[in-house]
Amino acid sequence: MLHTRSCIRIWDFPTRLFHWALAICVIGAYVSVKLGGLYMDWHVRFGLATLGLIVFRVLWGLVGPRYARFSTFVRGPGAIKRYIQGAATSAGHNPLGALSVIAMLAVLGFQTISGLFISDDIMTQGPLYGRIDESVSSWLASWHERNEWIIIGLVVLHFVAIIWYVAVRRRRIVGPMITGNARPQDLPAGTPPTEDGPMIWLRAAIIAAAVTALVLWIRSLELVADFSFS
Question: What is the b/e burial string over 11-33, where b = at least 16 CB atoms within 10 angstroms of the residue's CB?
């Protein structure tokens, strides 16, 4: 169903699943690295899962439904300026929110990729540690640690934006990311619903399977390396 009695379907299920799965993985990676010790194995697992989610979202942003595509919500400085000045926008991510999406994907993408090549010099290392020059690995490790603060800053900014939208603009933006449906009064007139149906699900399943295979392959490289050095 694309419509409910009084709502319009905006967010497809794969996009919503990605959003909440990413939140769980980011929280899990942060908590596990702070606990340290044996929990570092979970830090690596959460990191690999985050990498898979980021790759999925990038691909989904190219071939996913209307409001999930980058071409729908990524706009230039002019559109951002007009939005700040009060201009109406289409459904989905607004031009300013698009910057947050791109920044989060880029920062988390760097964090997960850099984590593949580094070690804590104690007991934990990324699946691809030792496959690049040690000086490059050390550089990545230093930025992996610094980048944590950038991630925290973006997360805080994300929560501040949510509070501002709810308190100032009186728009419900959390509910639609749970149910997929938005109220007509929160959308521009004539907003069409997002695409749905078997082909969307099939497309998501194919991408998810390919991404899962990629992550499992990366993980297997660490197992091969451990076996060769044992």
Answer: bbebbbebeeebeebbebbbebb
Contact 66, 72 (CB under 8 A): yes
Computed from CA positions of residues 52, 54, 60, 62, in that sequence, does the dihedral angle turn out positive or negative? Answer: negative
C-alpha 41/C-alpha 164 separation (Å) is 37
CA distance 202 to 215: 20
**In sequence order, what are the residues at sequence separation of 6 or more whose Cβ sits closer than 8 angstroms to the Cβ of residue 158?**
100, 104
What lies within 8 Å, CB to CB, of 205 at 6+ separation is none
Q: Calculate the alpha carbon distances from 6 to 118, 145, 181, 184, 205 in Å.
A: 51, 47, 9, 7, 30
Summarize pLDDT for 15-73 with one digit per residue, the tens: 999 999 999 999 999 999 999 988 999 999 999 999 999 999 999 999 999 999 999 88
Inform me whether the pLDDT recorded for 85 exceeds 80: no
Contacts of 200 (CB under 8 A, 6+ apart): 12, 14, 64, 65
Q: Which amino acid is at 4?
A: T
